[in-house]
Every structure is written in structure tokens, then in C-alpha cells.
Fold this protein.
Amino acid sequence: MLKDLQKLKLHWGGVSDIVDRWLEERRELLVKYCDLIEIHDFDSANKNHGEKLKDFCEVMVDYVSVGHFEVYEELVKEAQAFSDKDGLRVGADLMDKIQPSTEAVLDFNDKYLATDDLDSLSVDLSTVGESLEMRFECEDKMIEVLHSAHLFELEQSTASA
């Protein structure tokens, strides 16, 4: 039984590592976003503006992809392992709330991969920034409901073993 608890702790510690790396990617995304919003007059002829936009799009799409195809999946597996039906229900609701921001991110990326016209970039950055803010709030809640709540249970189980 103690071995099973140790295996669980190692596995879920790995989930913590995945979440930590992902949150570090979020920090990088926010830095890239701030670099862009500091530019007041975007100029498509300015190579630096185009590079900053390209870097931002790459980091943003990577962040969203890791969330969907790695982090969310691991969080759901964890909740399933703990038979956390309420957490899974809340997680599904949060995923529904996150989906529109995924579409906004992909639309933004597609638009700026296809054009050098930066006339509407300031407005589009504001819009995608609002989507990201809502997404981050939902993701934080998902981490809290599907992961952090189980860390306490795991610590209690390990302490009593």
C-alpha cells in the first residue's frame, strides 16, 4: 500500500512539474504580449515589429497547444484517479469557457501569418489579450479544482501510511 502511495505521489508530482513548466510558458507569453503592446505605431516595414509579432504568435499557439494536448488531459486523468466527479464536471464547464479563447488565439495567429498589414494590430492585440485573461482565470480554476485539491488528499494519505 505504501508503494502504491509513493507511485501516486511520483506520478502526480510529475503533473505538478508539467503544470509548473506550462505556467512558465504562460509567463513567457505575457512577456511577449507586453513587448507588443508597448509599440504604439506598428509599422510593417519595421522588421523588429514583425519579429516580435511572430515570436508572440509562436509562443501563444504553443501555450494553447500544450494546454489542450498535455496539461488538461493530465488534470482530467488525475481527477478520474481520485474519482472526483464534481471536479470533472467543473473541469468540463471550464473547458467550455476556454474554447472561445482558443478560437480567438488561432484566428489571431492565422490572420497575422497571412498578412503584413498591421493597421488593426493594436485592436486585435487588445481583443486577444482579453481572451487570454479569461482563459488564464479558467485555467487557474481548473488547476485548483483538478490538481491542487488532490495534493492535499495525497499528502494526507501519505502522512497516515
